[in-house]
Amino acid sequence: MKVLISGGSGFLGTALSKQLLAYYQTKDQPIDITWLTRNTQQAHLHDVQLMSYDTLKDTDAAFDVIINLAGAGIADKRWSDERKQQLMDSRIKPTQALLDFIARSSHKPTCLISGSAIGWYGTQGDTPLTEDSSFEEDFAHRLCAAWEQLATKATELGVPVALIRTGVVIHPSGGMLGKLLPPFKLGLGGQLGDGTQIMSWISREDWVAALIFVLEQQLAQTADAKPHAQIYNFTAPNPISNAVFTKAVGHWLHRPTVFTLPRSLLQLMFGEMATLLVDGQKVLPKALEDSGYSFLQPTIAEALREQSD
Fold first, then answer.
1. Fewer CB atoms near the end CB (10 Å): N or C, the chain?
2. Is residue 273 part of a domain?
3. For range 170-190, the mean pLDDT
4. 22 is in which domain, residue-wise?
5. Taxonomically, which superkingdom (predicted)?
C-alpha cells in the first residue's frame, strides 16, 4: 500500500507515520509512506520518502491512500488579519494541490482522509455536539468549513472522503500539553478564566489508533459504493472542564495549580484567539463509537498516566 501524507512531519503526522509502519509490518503487509512537503531537505523518518509540491504537479506516481494533515497551528500566533489568511492558505493550498493530483491521476486513491477540527462547530458552551450537530458562526468555523468543503470535492472525482474533526490532542511532546508543561512544572500552572469551559480532548495514542481504524474502514468499503464524505469527531468520550484538566495535570506532575488567568487578561493577551482558551465545546465521538472503535485512553487520568509509563 502506498500512502501520501501532507503535514507528515508534524506533531500528529510523525506519530501516525511511525504507527502505520509498525501496524502494517505486524500484518505482514508492505507499506510505502511519502510525505508531501515544501522542504525536501528536512529531517524525516527512516523508511519515509519525501516529495515536493512541485514534483506532485507532474508525477505519475500512484497512491492508494492520501492523508491530508497540512495546516499551520491555529493557536500558535495571535489572529491578525494576516495570520488568519496564513491559516486559511496553509489548509486550502495543499488541499487544492491534492485535488488537482487526484483529478489527473489515472489510478485514483481508495480514499482521502482529510484533517479538520472541532472548531467547525463554533462556540457552543456545554451543549453536547455530535457529527449531526449544527454550528455557530465564527472564524474557527469558517476556517474548518472552507477546508472541509474543498476536501469533499474529491467525492466528485470518485474518491471517498473521511473528514477528521480533531479536538485538543494530549501528549507531552507537543500540542497544548507540551506548551503547558514548563509553567506547570514550575508550580505556576492554573485554570483559565473561571475554569468551567468544556475541553474536548483526545490522547495522541487514540488519535493515531482511531485514524488507522478509520483507514481500515475506508479500505474495506466495496468498490462499487457511491463515494461520499463521512465525518468523524476525534475526541475522547469524556470531555472535561478546564478546572478538572488543570487539577489532573497538577496531580500528574505533583505540582500545585493555584493560579488563575482571568478571562479579561487572556483576551488582552490573545485577542480574538482567546476564544480557544475560554469558550468551551462539548464534542462527542458518536461516529467513532457507533463504528465500533474502542478508546485506549477514554479518561484524562488514563491519558496522563500513560505518559508516565
1. C
2. no
3. 91
4. 2-171+200-237+283-295
5. Bacteria
